[in-house]
Design goal:
InterPro entries: Phasin (IPR018968), Phasin_subfam-1 (IPR010127)
Distance between the termini: 41 Å
Protein name: Phasin
Number of helices: 3
Shape: rod-shaped
Pfam families: Phasin_2
Oligomer: single chain
Radius of gyration: 28 Å
């Protein structure tokens, strides 16, 4: 069985039968083997991109759960601090400081999560972009080969 990914299982060995079938058509100027090899590379690139996207999703989910846990711990500490503050004026001043710190932390966390998502998307897109470039080069080479055969 070929390497699997979390989205679907593909047994690449089944493509061998398609190769045999396509070779019987004998299309002039078409190298069926190279076309099938190119398509197999496309599938591998998409599988790799999906794997990177899935791993990125997992990283974001893990970080979000860490942020939620930290937030609950910090909230508990904040409530304790507010209860310990003396006069109502002290409580208001302390509450303003704590709200400011909480807001800054929330922005920092949002920025961090956005960077994680962007990094994951970029890595997956890079795999696909590379394969598209390779595919276009393969096409150019194939066309050149057909021209030189004539």
């Amino acid at each position: 069985m070929a390497k699997t990914n979390p989205f679907f299982d593909v047994d690449v060995s089944k493509f061998a039968d398609v190769s045999k079938l396509m070779s019987e058509f004998k299309l002039p100027g078409v190298d069926v083997e190279s076309v099938l090899a190119s398509q197999q590379k496309n599938i591998q690139a998409l599988t790799a991109a999906n794997q990177l996207a899935f791993e990125g999703f997992q990283a974001v989910a893990r970080r979000q759960s860490e942020i939620v846990r930290q937030t609950f711990e910090q909230t508990s500490a904040i409530v304790t601090e507010l209860m310990a503050a003396g006069s109502p004026e002290d409580k208001v001043a302390k509450q303003a400081d704590l709200v400011k710190l909480a807001f800054e932390k929330a922005l920092s966390n949002a920025r961090e999560l956005a960077e994680l998502v962007a990094k994951s998307n970029s890595e997956a897109a890079d795999v696909i972009n590379k394969r598209v470039s390779e595919s276009l080069e393969e096409l150019k080479a194939s066309v050149a080969q057909i021209k030189s055969a004539k």
